[in-house]
Amino acid sequence: MKRIISKLFLAVLLAALTCGSVFAASAKVTYVKGKVEVSRGDSWVALKVGDEVKESETVSTGFQSEVRLNYNGSVMAVPALSRVTLETLKSTSSKETVSLKVDTGAVRSKVTHTSGKKIEYEARTSVGVASVRGTDFAVFSTGLAKVFSGAIVYFDISEYIPPATDDEAEDEEPAEDLGPADAVTPADEIDGNAPKGAKVVGAGQSSTIDKDGQASDPFDEAKKRATKAKNAVGSAADKDGQASGAAGAAGAAGGSSAPQEGDMELNLKFKKKN
């Protein structure tokens, strides 16, 4: 009987050591402003700098509040009136896996690329998924995604495939060092699970999931912003021209007009005393 128990103990010990290369971690709180809490059990606990937020925990921010979390060099900034769940935080010798769920509000992520490691970093909302590699980006619960540097692949939530389980992660080959993505990187190189029709959104671009579950083309979004800015400038110029014309008409009719600017030349002569 003792031999059987010893063998079982050794089997459990070996299993624990084998699984040591894949582990759930936690993100460290590096900045807190205002009311910031984490959901633990049946209660909400206030967070302060230096605290840790574990996998599957949800962070909530109040009015005029903000929190920043750091996970292995990658920063997650959660602005006011947001609720974000850290669904997956896992690390192996060959891969970092991070999955965030934005219930309300937004989250901005600056992903740090680690040489020799594959990065699977994604943030999802109720309508869309943003999957990245070495990128600074933000996603909003409204379906909008903005990229500040690097690139993301953006697609409808119905196409979402959860990150690999621990057993699947153990079977993976060491990752190739692909480096940060950019706007010309194919979608399947940013995320191997990217579905057909997924949009690659590069630095300075944005995309929105529409009512049909389609991510808008980043170039179309840029054109819309440019047209909107042009129309705004044109409208302001028209108003300025109308105001100038009205002032000129008032002056011609003998009414008051705006002060005029210009130069005046004075010729002064002084009479010499005898």
Question: What would your notes on this structure say?
Answer:
The chain is an alpha+beta fold and 274 residues long. The chain is built from four helices and 18 strands. It has helices spanning 2-18, 166-170, 187-190, 218-252; strands spanning 23-24, 26-33, 36-40, 43-46, 52-54, 58-61, 66-71, 74-78, 83-91, 95-104, 106-110, 118-124, 128-132, 136-140, 144-149, 151-156, 199-202, 206-208. Strands 1, 3, 4, 6, 9, 10, 12, 13, 16 and 17 form a ten-stranded mixed sheet that branches. It is globular and about 60 Å long.
Order of helices and strands: HEEEEEEEEEEEEEEEEHHEEH
> Helix coverage percent of residues?
10-25%
Give the integer mean of the pLDDT values.
Answer: 79
Identify the overall geometry.
globular
How many angstroms separate the termini? 139 Å
Report the C-alpha radius of gyration, rounded: 29 Å
- Please, how many helices? 4
- Strand tally: 18
Question: What is the structural class?
Answer: alpha+beta
The major sheet is characterized as: 10 strands, mixed
Task: Detail the topology: elements first, then pairings.
Blueprint: H1 2-18, E1 23-24, E2 26-33, E3 36-40, E4 43-46, E5 52-54, E6 58-61, E7 66-71, E8 74-78, E9 83-91, E10 95-104, E11 106-110, E12 118-124, E13 128-132, E14 136-140, E15 144-149, E16 151-156, H2 166-170, H3 187-190, E17 199-202, E18 206-208, H4 218-252
Quick gist of this model?
The chain is of the alpha+beta class. The protein is built from four helices and 18 strands.
What are the main properties of this structure?
eight-stranded antiparallel beta sheet, alpha+beta, 274 residues, single chain
